[in-house]
Amino acid sequence: MYSVTKKIQMARFLLIIIGLSFFSFNSSAKRMAPEFYKSKSMIDGNLKKNESIFQFQFQSLDYYYQNQSITYSIDGKQSMAILDSFEFTVRTTPGKHIFQIYIDDAYYEMYSDSLEIGSKAIDTYYLFPRYSIIQIEVDKPLIYLYPERKQKISVEVVPTGKMKFTYPEMNEEWNVIANPNGTIEYNKNEYNYLFWESTQEFNFSGFDLNTGYVVEGKDITDFLENKLNDAGFNSFEMADFITYWGPQMINHPHLFIKFHQNEECNQFARLNIEPQPDHTNRFYMSWLPISSNYNPKPQTISRFNRSGFSVIEWGGQELHLQKTLSR
Predict the structure, then answer these.
(1) CB 316 within 8 A of CB 228
(2) How big is the chain by its Cα radius of gyration, in Å?
(3) 286 phi, psi to nearest 5 deg
């Protein structure tokens, strides 16, 4: 079972630093409806003086969730509930209470402020859950091949989503001749790298915002130079990376940045290469603009192993939170 406390910390962080204006479906900003909206309150004479009832009604859940179980907590105490007609009730005592509600990974976890309820009261709240699946573009992954000798190499990229563009054009795979200096021969032309892009769905609810970096946009060039140098990029690879991402990031006041390396990159695409390299070094960056500064735990960056037949691949994605998808 997922930890309500851990996932709620992420949800709180998103609402604080990103701002509701990000969650718009067109160019004009639209504020999201509050997650907990008090609909009505009534007194039930059948209740005891020390009894109260919260009634929660989901307003925008898929039909699939009818009669499904959810996890919630009241004042830190965790329980389960079955959704009957997309509703559930919590019997409690008069006073102030805080709720956390987790549906599943398709939705952000919900949290309330302190909700006050009177004696013998039945308070009804409408709930407006938000999808956590967003659409992203995996931008400009570049694949560099460094064999020990000139040789034929086949390269296949299998993206998690839909392939958007490749250069040179790839059908099922690239069959190239690669040279130790990194140049690639393909269809009588010479290239410095293989290029692809993809559109994909991304489950933001599993994205750990407690580990990574927060950087001011004006400092992005120095920051990337330092981190790419730590990872083992050479000067040409570093220039390709920074000249692509730097102009997109420099004008934001603050940026949250998280790097993915090697096996973590399989969430975006599988990379199949024959003959098998001695070392495949993959390095992806996820980033999003944020509205204020904070201090996540810094990541540990592993250095590339470039011995033998080595492959370097880098790519990245800006997390456009306004592009929220339905299931």
Answers:
(1) no
(2) 25
(3) -105, 140
214 dihedral zone (left: phi>0; alpha: psi -120 to 50; beta):
beta
Q: pLDDT by residue (tens digit) across 58-116?
A: 987 877 888 899 999 999 999 999 999 899 999 999 999 999 999 987 788 888 989 99
| Residue 38: its H or E element | strand 36-43
Q: Tokens 């590339």 identify what position?
A: 304
Q: From the CB of residue 200, how many other CB atoms can be counted at a distance below 10 Å?
A: 18
- Three-state secondary structure call for residue 216: strand
Tokens standing for 89? 């009730």
Measured from the Cβ of residue 9, the count of other Cβ atoms closer than 10 Å reads 15
List all residues 6 or more positions away from 80 whose beta carbon is below 8 Å from its beta carbon: 69, 70, 71, 72
pTM given for the model: 0.69
Q: Where are the beta strands (DSSP E) in 84-146?
A: 87-92, 95-97, 99-102, 110-111, 115-117, 121-127, 133-146
Q: List pLDDT tens digits, range 274-327.
A: 999 999 999 999 999 887 777 889 999 999 999 999 999 999 999 865 433 333
CA angle, 205 then 210 then 213, to 5°: 115
| All domains of the chain in start order, with CATH | 4-127 (2.60.40), 133-318 (no CATH)
Q: Which residue in 286, 289, 268, 140 sits closest to 201, CA to CA?
A: 268
Identify which has the larger pLDDT, 279 or 2: 279
User: Which of 108-143 are b and which e, b meaning 16 or more Cβ less than 10 Å from the residue's Cβ?
Assistant: bbbbbeebebeebbbbbbbbebbbbbbebbbbbbbb
For 34-60, the pLDDT digits (tens) are 578 898 999 999 999 999 999 999 987
Nearest to 286 by CA among 312, 314, 313: 314
Q: Please report, to the nearest 10 degrees, the dihedral formed by the alpha carbons of residues 21, 24, 29, 33 taken in order.
A: -70
